[in-house]
Amino acid sequence: MRILLVGAGGVGTAITRIAARRDFFEHMAVADYDPTRAEAAVAALGDAGSRFSAHRVDASDRAAVTALLTEHRCDVLLNATDPRFVMPLFEAALAGRAHYLDMAMSLSAPHPDRPYEECGVRLGDAQFEQAELWEKSGRLALVGMGVEPGLSDVFARHAADELFDEIEEIGIRDGANLTVEGYDFAPSFSIWTTIEECLNPPVVFEKDRGWFTTEPFSEPEVFDFPEGIGPVECVNVEHEEVLLVPRWVDARRVTFKYGLGDDFIGKLKTLHALGLDSTAPVTVASDLGPARISPRDVVAAVLPDPATLGDRMHGKTCAGTWVKGTKDGAPREVYLYHVVDNQWSMREYGSQAVVWQTAINPVVALELVAAGTWAGSGVLGPEAFPARPFLELLTAYGSPWGQREQ
Amino acid sequence: MRILLVGAGGVGTAITRIAARRDFFEHMAVADYDPTRAEAAVAALGDAGSRFSAHRVDASDRAAVTALLTEHRCDVLLNATDPRFVMPLFEAALAGRAHYLDMAMSLSAPHPDRPYEECGVRLGDAQFEQAELWEKSGRLALVGMGVEPGLSDVFARHAADELFDEIEEIGIRDGANLTVEGYDFAPSFSIWTTIEECLNPPVVFEKDRGWFTTEPFSEPEVFDFPEGIGPVECVNVEHEEVLLVPRWVDARRVTFKYGLGDDFIGKLKTLHALGLDSTAPVTVASDLGPARISPRDVVAAVLPDPATLGDRMHGKTCAGTWVKGTKDGAPREVYLYHVVDNQWSMREYGSQAVVWQTAINPVVALELVAAGTWAGSGVLGPEAFPARPFLELLTAYGSPWGQREQ
């Protein structure tokens, strides 16, 4: 297998470090808008970097991406950029006759009149619209294959296959006790993406009603996370699992709740009240003259790059899927989860916990695709494939998952 | 008198409307970085605009400003820009042998090691350093001559001259009950300046100790404002009066407290925690390529222009000076104040209350200078001049002030 990795930020860099220890692929070309980032990712691999090369590419330039795929004879494009670039990369992969894998799906747009009641354009809609083209080409677009979405969807499929006869609710629950020394406020993941998922109307699925939306930060609940993280207040946010899981797994209700905490929610609400979450350009004075810039890009620019904070971070992050239903006629409630301790991921891989946890899952998935264990064509979510091989390989990577009966 | 007004934003435009009704000057040249703003201000005067002309000028370009003063034979430069441009305009006026008047003083810089205990560079320091040059040239720089600083300083001088024998404390107190229809958050005054004064370490004067600083938003107190505004929580902020009043008026303590309210304080704290209050340039993508921009300029760009909100605003704004001391051996406490009702200022002048209240005071002061009632040379604050003529002329302008014994 030959891979084109687009994006050498925090997640992309962690992908190279994880993949370098595995022998399922022949070559990985690492490309970024900023070539120094791609070069730094490859250089950091040292002797283990002989199967990697660094390149420059503009992820929004379909033709350039397709040319890079062809030039390096890549079988698959692995997208590790932010969600703005999903569509150009997804389309470039198809044009280049490559498989495609991403960790976030094409963006949503709120309902024009009833944004907090009905869906407008849903996450992934633009990708699923092209499913037939992918099926015809015999190529696989494996979408939402990070940790959340990704491993969380694998957990949902595993629960349906092996742990439940009937499922009442699947609720993805994400929480952490991470702190960053020396910063008042330093998000541990891309603020651009965090704003996108937290301020968009959260989406909920109910079997009788289909997909619908609510007010941001709705239905707060305190969820008790394992391995010493403890109780964290979680609220509904927009996330791919709610769109993916019901397509392949039978459940009466699917939700996603994120353990943001009061302080973070307050800051996001302020950004929104001021209009600083907006991606619509405004004109400001610059060294180049009056320039059109996106306020959200400025928020990202003033905050520290989360990928560089690993040395100052402490604590653990937990991603997981809570499932409620029945097995053999008896009620059952299970939380399937994956915890990463920042101290461990920094020591083992030099990557902070949140980006490392995102990065390991697409590498595991690619190894399953390379082996033919996961095979298919079209636009498919992680829950379209058998879960057990994935969970076993994840454990073999040295990163086991857990199951808690509750 | 011939006047060069630099700045045709909200305050500058209100100045033209107030001045157009007075006959103490011969000509007012109105200049702005954006010539369409200057033209709009003059055009709005209609038939009353014959003594006004519109021009383009970059307020940071000393030579261009001096040339404009000479070209239009101006006796005085009236600075209605934001405080970043105080020093170039102040120096351009001296070079052009004109008097100078502003409504905010040269900017402060915090103490490098003990920002919340000691002053670093104080507001106005850079201007007072040049006092001798102004004295020698026989020209007057009347600094801090808006409403606060400005009218508030006149009140302090009036209290010292006529109402008290000994003054224990002079506390400027500013509060409002303004609301803006249709906006979650819409500051009624320049957000650039509001951030500057609220997030800098607040300065306090005590006779035994001199000037010193505290933490932002310190010493909260509820002050009861007159004319139906009622009680508002006020906190210490950095303001020119604390630097000006002790130079000419004998008081044991001088403070400035602003009625910001919890919600506004929370938003300012968030901007600060994220670094969005900063004026240090960051690089972001723009239509012109990677551009260096100031995050605080972006905050200003995403918020509605306060000068345009008059039609949606409701309520009153109050500026005033609370004085505590003794008169004829008996304790006395007085609040001298000036209230503007937005409905009135919109109907009478088409200007919203906060900018109108700032704008009237420099016009009154210029009229006193033109008449020779206020005369002097050097760098002087409003309290360096007799207060009674100012207060009488303010009343004659149709905008009376009040006095409350407490």
From TrEMBL, chains A, B:
Domain named Saccharopine dehydrogenase-like C-terminal: residues: 146-398
Start and end residues of each Saccharopine dehydrogenase NADP binding domain: 3-141
Top-level taxonomic group: Bacteria
Family matches, as Pfam families: Sacchrp_dh_C, Sacchrp_dh_NADP
Gene3D superfamilies noted in UniProt: Dihydrodipicolinate Reductase, domain 2 (3.30.360.10), NAD(P)-binding Rossmann-like Domain (3.40.50.720)
PANTHER family membership: CARBOXYNORSPERMIDINE SYNTHASE
Protein's name according to its UniProt entry: Saccharopine dehydrogenase C-terminal domain-containing protein
